[in-house]
Design brief:
Helix content is 32%, strand content 29%. It is of the alpha+beta class. The protein has one domain: Nuclear Transport Factor 2, Chain: A, CATH 3.10.450. The protein has a 4-stranded antiparallel sheet with strand order 1-2-3-4, with helices on one face. Strand 2 (86-97) and strand 3 form a beta hairpin. It is globular.
Length: 160
């Protein structure tokens, strides 16, 4: 009888032990946390799930959220692994400008990468939907004001 009690206890205890979350579960949780925080204007919390090199661009893209735009709803549409350490998360964002009651819907594609600790957002783009959810992309080689005229006058000579 004692052995039966020990066996029942061992089997019952084993069922209570949880396995660590899989990589896909950690990605889904990180995506959920980031997107829920952005929906409610908590960019400080959302930024915890953004890769260091993408934080300034993330801040620029979401600056209008809560100020000029209202996010009505976010829905995780799907998660696709692109490799062992990269994935794409698609979400549908319902939104409207504060000066216009028209509800818009945009499909946002987010690219995530797995670091040693967790998953981080590295890039997001509008896959479909009307413009306005994000500002226009920042030019990579933005010239200083008057730089084009200066180059025209100096020719191809590169003077600081």
């Amino acid at each position: 009888m004692r052995r039966l009690s020990l066996l029942a206890f061992a089997l019952g205890s084993a069922g209570c032990m949880a396995l660590p979350p899989s990589s896909m579960e950690r990605l889904s949780q990180s995506a959920y946390d980031l997107n829920t925080a952005t929906r409610f204007g908590r960019m400080d919390i959302a930024a915890e799930n953004v890769a260091v090199e993408a934080k300034s661009d993330f801040g620029r893209r979401h600056r209008a959220w809560g100020r000029e735009l209202r996010i009505v709803d976010l829905e995780l549409e799907g998660v696709q692994m692109l490799g062992s350490d990269s994935a794409e998360v698609n979400l549908i964002v319902s939104w409207h400008r504060l000066d216009d009651a028209t509800i818009h819907s945009s499909l946002v594609a987010q690219r995530w990468t797995q670091t040693s600790a967790d998953w981080k957002l590295v890039e997001e783009t509008i896959a479909s939907g009307p413009p306005g959810l994000f500002p226009p992309p920042k030019p990579k080689d933005a010239e200083r004001p008057g730089e084009a005229k200066r180059r025209e006058l100096l020719g191809s000579v590169d003077v600081p």
